[in-house]
Amino acid sequence: MAQPHNAQQHNTETGVPHDAGHKGAFPPLDPNNFAPQLIWLAITFALLYWLLSKIALPRIGEVIEERRDRIQRDLDAAEALKSETERAIRDYEQSLADARTKAGGIARETREKLAQQTDNKRRDSEAQVAAKIAEAEGRIADMKANALASVSDIASETASAIVAKLIGDNVSAAEAKKHL
Amino acid sequence: MGRPRPRKNKYQDIAQFERRVSELDKKLGKVRAEKAAEAVSHGGSAVGGRGMSYGFRIGSEFVGAILVGAAIGYGLDLLLGTKPWLLLLFFLLGFAAGVLNVMRGYQQLQGDISRETGGNIGHSVPDNDDD
Amino acid sequence: MPDPIHQFEIKRIVPLDLFGLDATFTNSALFMLLAVVLIAGFLIFSMQGRSLVPTRLQSLAEMLYEFVANMVRDTMGGHSHDDGHGHSHEHGYMKFFPLVFTIFIFILTLNMLGMIPGFFTSTSHLAVTAGLALLVFVTVLIVGFAKNGLGFLNLFVPSGVPIYVLPLVVAIEIISFLSRPISHSVRLFANMLAGHITLKVFAGFIIMLLGAGGAYGVLSILPLSMATALTALEFLVAFLQAYVFAMLTCMYLNDALHPGH
Question: Helix, strand or coil for residue C2?
């Protein structure tokens, strides 16, 4: 590579026109091409750097940043809403459970009260019935006693009548009763 | 009482609602996991070409150091008139610098690999030398 | 057979003279200018909507942005993790993002433009790649000394080296440092040059075999398939070289910001 390089330098030094001089030279390493390329590299690169660093890149960065923030915000909002919803559900279920236990309590109370009332009533009526039965029994006993008493009266009268008939004497009922 | 019917409806509502909430929960979890995965894996964005790019680097850095060493030696020889000696010395120094460059590149490659595989070199290292 | 070197010929379009310097507007300058117009036009036009839900063009522009931003963050952001106050550092090194982005997109566009048949590849000329490498080198020097003063010279003095080998080590470190712009520029230049020469040679084979006619025309399948594979490889190389150039720029700038190894 060194030889054509040197030959090429030689050619340009002797002022041979470029197009002729490049025959056999190696353009990428030709020092004659350095200055114009470096100068235009500097111009174009500086221009590009300015355009990108001042306009294009901040714009892209902004949009990306904005999107990232937006997504983060939305995620956070969703998260917050979700936990709020969960809390609301929990509260609702709590109050539902409270109401349920309260309702159960009331029902039990009512049931007990009703049972007690029925009990009382039953007891009352039972007592009444018992009193009535006792009264009736008393009455029956009286009637029995009366009946028995009348039976002995009848018997003594009957006996005196029989005696009078038999002996022709009038035996008083009282005497008859004595002999009986 | 007219209570039971609306209450039953409400239970259905709650069940549906809870299903929706848990779906949202799942979605949120997925989005978060994706974000985390993205944050972890962005290092591997150059993936397949990494081995090749190290190959490109190491060769040229070795040759570059030798060239620079030789050039310095040659220049100093011209300046001090010590014709071949400094060229020889700096050629050797350039060689050493080339080896140093290669070693540094290799260290970096290893660092990169261990960072990507979580420290266990030799496991699941992407195989790039299939050319 | 066409001359594979011909495609690198500089054509002088408008002869110009700038303070005694040859500032001729050449085909190389034309393609650099074209690249600037294309890049700026694309990046500014695609973001016209600035929409939160991007169009296809806009998402491509954003992808490029994120790609380079991640590269800068990965290569230069390592130190902020150790310090614990990452944010101030993030702004520190993100200052160089526009420079790295401009270098990356400029080289990528020039490389890709060169892949179009008949187009000129500015990056296959040493002057262009060396200019870019020197720009990086000088930026690193300026940033290094501005940030660290003479502490920047610590870059050449590794810690824990015995005093009697220190001069040797420092010499090696300096050579290593000076070799950066050389390898930086030659790598890009040589890869683009070699790739284009190879492609041209294979294209030449195809034309030669087709021209010979008959059975030779059938044989042209061979170089054709090779040329196809090589073209795909060249596209990859065109991208990777832009990537490597930009990534090394990040690394060198990182050294300028944190000279201690």
Answer: coil
Name the residue facing C70 among B45, B98, B101 (closest C-beta): B45
CA distance A12 to chain C (A): 14
Length of chain A: 180
- From the number of C-beta atoms within 10 Å of its C-beta (0-12, 13-18, 19+), residue C9 rates as middle
Domain ranges in chain C are 6-257
Cross-chain Cβ contact B24/A92 below 8 Å: no
CA distance C11 to chain A (A): 9
Q: Could you read off the pLDDT of C88-113 as tens digits, one per residue?
A: 445 578 889 999 999 999 999 999 99
B26 touches chain A (CB under 8 A): no
CA distances B86 to B67, B78, B92, B130, C186, Å, are: 14, 10, 10, 42, 25
> Would you call C14 helix, strand, or coil by DSSP?
strand
A71-114 pLDDT, tens digit per residue, is 889 888 988 988 888 888 889 889 999 999 999 999 999 999 99
**Model confidence pLDDT, tens digit, residues C193-225:** 888 888 888 888 888 888 877 777 777 788 788
Domain ranges for chain B: 1-32, 50-120
Q: What is the pLDDT, as a whole number, of residue A170?
A: 66
Which residue is it, tokens 């002057």?
A: C127
| Domain ranges, residue A86 | 2-179
**Contact partners, residue C29, CB within 8 Å, separation at least 6:** A36, A37, A40, A43, A44, C13
The reply to whether residue B24 touches residue A82, judged by beta carbons under 8 angstroms, is yes
Q: How far is C246 from chain A (nearest CA, A)?
A: 14
**Structural domain count of chain A:** 1
Reported ipTM: the value is 0.87
Please check whether residue B100 is in contact with residue C176, taking contact to mean a CB–CB distance below 8 angstroms.
Answer: yes
DSSP lists the bridge partners of residue C21 as C18
Q: Count of B–C CB contacts within 8 Å?
A: 79
Task: Say whether B53 and C243 touch across the interface (CB within 8 A).
Answer: yes
Q: Which residue among A82, A92, A93 sits closest to B28, beta carbon to beta carbon? A: A82
Nearest CA in chain A to C189: A28
Which pLDDT does position C181 carry in this prediction?
92
pTM metric for this prediction: 0.72
Report which of C248, C124, C229 is spatially closest to residue C186, judged by C-alpha positions. Answer: C124
Instruction: Answer yes or no: do B21 and A79 touch at CB < 8 A.
Output: no
- For residue A84, report the phi and psi dihedrals to the nearest 5 degrees: -65, -45
Tokens of C77: 């952001």
Contact list, B56 vs chain C (CB under 8 Å): 187, 191, 240-241, 244
Q: How far apart are CA B35 and CA B29, in angstroms?
A: 10
Q: List all residues 6 or more positions away from C16 whose beta carbon is below 8 Å from its beta carbon.
A: A36, C22, C23, C24, C25
Secondary structure (3-state) at C21: strand
